[in-house]
Amino acid sequence: MPSSFFNPTYVFTSAIILRVVLLLYGLLQDKYSPLPYTDIDYFVFTDAARYVSHGYSPYNRETYRYTPLLAWLLVPTAWPGPTWFSFGKVLFALADIVAGWLIVLMLKSPAGGNMRIERALKFASIWLLNPMVATISTRGSSEGLLGVMVVALLWAVLSRRITMAGVLLGLAVHFKIYPFIYGISIVWYLEPSPDDSKRETVSSAKDSSPTSFLQQLKAFITPNRLTLLMSSLTTFSALNIIMYAIYSTPFLTHTFLHHLKRIDHRHNFSPYNTLLHLSSASPRETGLQFESLAFLPQLALSAIFIPLALAKKDLAGTMLAQTFAFVAFNKVCTSQYFLWYTILLPFYLPYSSLLSSPRLGMTAAALWVGTQALWLQQGYELEFLGLSKFIPGLFTAGLAFFAVNCWILGIIVVDIGNKSIGKPATSHNTGGRALKEKNVVR
Amino acid sequence: MRERITFVHGAEDAFDPKQLQIQEENSLHIKSLKAAREDRMTASLYELPQELWRVLKQCHELHIRWVSEHAFPSVAPFISTISPGLHVFFTPLKDRSAYRSTLSAAPKGVRGTAQMYITRAENYVDINYDTISQSLVLSAFWHSESASGRWDGQIDNHGGSVKVEVGVLAIEKATQPEELSLGGFLAVLGEDTKPNPTLFSFPSRHHISPSTSGTNYSTAFIQPTGLHPTLRLTLPPSTDPPAPDCALHTYLTLPSSLFPDKYQLSSSNFLASNNLHSIRSLSGEIDLEAPTWAVSKWGSALLLELAPPETRSAQWHADIPLHLRYLRPADGGSTNTSIPWPIVFWACSSDEGTKMNTNPFDRVNLGYDGLFGPRTMFYHLRPTNGGVSLVDELKVPVLDLDESKVRWVESGTVMVVLLGFFWVFWTLGRVVARDFGLGTGSARRKKD
């Protein structure tokens, strides 16, 4: 008999029961309460799926801003009978479980930390038994689907299934754009493995100082990197070409262009929110418009500096830091975006100083929750009491939340940075490889 | 050009034909007449000034209606209701390019002719034009004479250039349920030497809701309104349909500052909990996200079927959830937006073969009537508000443009974002610098 709760049967049974209970509870609430449990987005998805099942474009449904793949996937929800309507929620919940199973698989693997099953399950429970995650999926939000794609991508890279990684990357970017930032860290991470025969060429290229740019480039373009690039670009382009061929301009407008030209004036957690609101309502004719440059610090950190500085130390941690930066510096930020990095926490927390120093961890958690609560309080007074809380209330609360995010991001960066120093508890993976490399050099 | 002036007095306000004296050939004197009044002027297209004629030539149909914000009691046959405000219904004749020029020019061109009516009208003014009749019809309605409550004065036919018909009528008991019956006196100036008695009946689209079906309603916003105001209709306990196949409806005319969410109004539980049945029609600006400065349409119109509760011992409510767009930032952090009261009516179908358009007082193209079949009858409930305006003012929180607050937004945002950026950049820099240092150190050691 298993001595601890953290064995696969218990954890996965609990995760499944949690979702089944929430699903059934949701059916009851939907049936009897005027306030539906089901997320408003789920009605958007299922309406779009109904259009698709009748041979129409999913973009006939207003505010459908996703890939047609999602509507296709949910076509069974348009089948007759109330049971089929929940098909999407079951699918999203199932995606959660699969994502959790992949997390466990990776944490156990040599590349992911060589954890014992019990410890791996503890960290995977951050995702599997997280009530927020389970609620979001069972309410019918598709974030769980993206979660499984990102974890599968990570798993494919770490287990060197490069073509599959490229396909997953292309698919994820087609689905939600932002995962393109992972492309850069994966390319950077994919330096020749110890078993790779070309490894020595690269290390010698590194050591000998006067190398031409061409040689360096040649060394950089490894078969793995090429495979990743080609497979991801092919998948991404193929999906877009197919969708464009079927749905033409509405597909481009709603899936991609909408995200570029949206005004984002409604209050949200983003530090830019008040500035965007102000400049959208009363545009200035002259002067530098800082809000139009908002993508610069965001992409500089999430797509360039973080991957370059950290990807070779720990890919999963780097992806977490990238997502964290991307969300914190985004022009629009809502709580569903937090799921984007929640899925990556199980890979970072095992060596995080937020856990090794409980005081630091508690402070970070308290500040992260506290500044959000402050913002929510202001938002409540605006939305429901009708008080003008834009400035200073929401403005300062948004900036405070942003500042806390930057501070936490700093901690994450330092933690990942520490990995190469080779503390035994913190670097199963890169430490191990560094040892092997030394042996080979000698 | 023809002019028809109709006075309708109540049964209790006894009318003596002596109050209506045809003094000379072309004029008529009215003495102390307590009645509602409708003036209706019809001009064919060629009788109009060229400026106006040109504008109307581009229209297939044009209906401009202005309704006062003050409540007035119903007087048959003038029963139809519309929400207070200016309503313009326009159908261009040809292509859409005509749409803009005509729409901006029409009110301007019509204004000269209609000015007299608008300034004098107490309750409502209609301006109607359509290509089939090729004529412009202006009508204005007063529930009663504004100052004294009694009409006094002279009506003449401008030396015979206008055919003027005057009627003083009272409602009589109709024989058919869909009919109205009027009796009284008629006179055509320049033709008749004395008022002629008359009695006539006609089917009418619009009726007053009988007391068993509820006669009055009132509206209010549930406080606090926030950014998601709920409009509450309060209806009387006795609301049985006037006929078996009738349904109770409300028609809302909303400015672009507010919008109904058609998806929220599609959830059956939600509708049922608010005594609503379903959306029958929603048109106009229905974008669910855009702020007012990003929408171009005037607003939206919503026709909702209500669901009276089964047990009707007390007053009941129908709650209509609405949502505010973001309005333009303003000093002080709040702006007002005006929302006219919706109208409430029973819609019933009438017998096959009823000819509604034989009604000399027929009023069509009101916004909601076209959403029903041509033989639909409307039983109207009246708004009761204790004499206050039928336009509700809503205080909307907006971004405060106070200079002392706003000036920190740009510099504050830029400063905090840059500080955050450089903090993360610096921590990354430290990691890279240490790696670089360690890297060269170990490399050197290796070489050693």
TrEMBL record, chain A:
GO MF terms listed in the record are: alpha-1,4-mannosyltransferase activity; GPI mannosyltransferase activity
> Which E.C. number(s) belong to this protein?
2.4.1.-
User: What pathway is this protein said to act in by its record?
Assistant: Glycolipid biosynthesis; glycosylphosphatidylinositol-anchor biosynthesis
Q: Which InterPro entries match?
A: PIG-M (IPR007704)
Q: Where are the transmembrane segments?
A: 9-28, 84-107, 128-158, 164-190, 226-247, 323-349, 390-414
Task: Give UniProt keywords alphabetically.
Answer: Endoplasmic reticulum, Glycosyltransferase, GPI-anchor biosynthesis, Membrane, Transferase, Transmembrane, Transmembrane helix
Question: Which domain of life, per UniProt?
Answer: Eukaryota
Q: Kindly give the membrane topology term recorded for this protein.
A: Multi-pass membrane protein
- Localization in the cell: Endoplasmic reticulum membrane
Q: What does the record list as GO biological process?
A: GPI anchor biosynthetic process
Q: Which GO terms describe its cellular component?
A: endoplasmic reticulum membrane; glycosylphosphatidylinositol-mannosyltransferase I complex
- Give the enzyme class: transferase
Respond yes or no to whether keyword Zinc-finger is given for this record. no
Q: Which family does it belong to?
A: Belongs to the PIGM family.
**What is the stated purpose of this protein?**
Mannosyltransferase involved in glycosylphosphatidylinositol-anchor biosynthesis. Transfers the first alpha-1,4-mannose to GlcN-acyl-PI during GPI precursor assembly. Required for cell wall integrity.
PANTHER family attached to this UniProt entry: GPI MANNOSYLTRANSFERASE 1, PIG-M MANNOSYLTRANSFERASE
Q: What is this protein called?
A: GPI mannosyltransferase 1
> Which source organism does the UniProt entry give?
Lepraria neglecta
Give the lineage: Eukaryota, Fungi, Dikarya, Ascomycota, Pezizomycotina
Q: Which gene does this sequence derive from?
A: GPI14
TrEMBL record, chain B:
Q: What is the membrane topology noted in the UniProt record heading this document?
A: Single-pass membrane protein; Single-pass type III membrane protein
Question: What GO cellular-component annotations does this UniProt entry give?
Answer: endoplasmic reticulum membrane; glycosylphosphatidylinositol-mannosyltransferase I complex
The record's annotation in InterPro entries points to: Pbn1, PIG-X/PBN1
Primary location group: endoplasmic reticulum
Which superkingdom?
Eukaryota
GO MF annotations for this entry? mannosyltransferase activity
Transmembrane stretches in the record are 408-428
Q: In which pathway does it act?
A: Glycolipid biosynthesis; glycosylphosphatidylinositol-anchor biosynthesis
Q: Which family does it belong to?
A: Belongs to the PIGX family.
Function description: Required for proper folding and/or the stability of a subset of proteins in the endoplasmic reticulum. Component of glycosylphosphatidylinositol-mannosyltransferase 1 which transfers the first of the 4 mannoses in the GPI-anchor precursors during GPI-anchor biosynthesis. Probably acts by stabilizing the mannosyltransferase GPI14.
| Protein name as it appears in the record | Protein PBN1
